Amino acid sequence: MDKDESGRGSGRSFRPVVKSFALVVLGAGIATAGSQALNALVQPSTNAPVTDALWDNGFLGRQDGSAQNRPAQNNDPQPQGSGTPLAIAPSVSNPNAIADIVRQVGPAVVRIDAARTVQSNVPPMFQDPRLRQFFGNNQPNSRGEQVQRGVGSGFITSADGQIITNAHVVAGADEVQVTLKDGRSFTGRVMGADEVTDVAVIKIEASDLPTVALSNSDQIQPGEWAIAIGNPLGLDSTVTAGIVSATGRSSRDVGIPDKRVDFIQTDAAINPGNSGGPLLNLSGEVIGVNTAIIQGAQGIGFAIPINTVQRISSQLIETGRVEHAYLGIQMVNLTPELKQNINSDPNRPFSVEAESGVLIGRVMPNSPAAQGGLRDGDIILAIEGQPVTESAAVQQAVERSSVGQNLSLTLRRDGREQTISVRPGNLPTQ
Question: pLDDT digits over 64-84, tens only?
Answer without folding.
Answer: 443 334 444 444 444 444 444
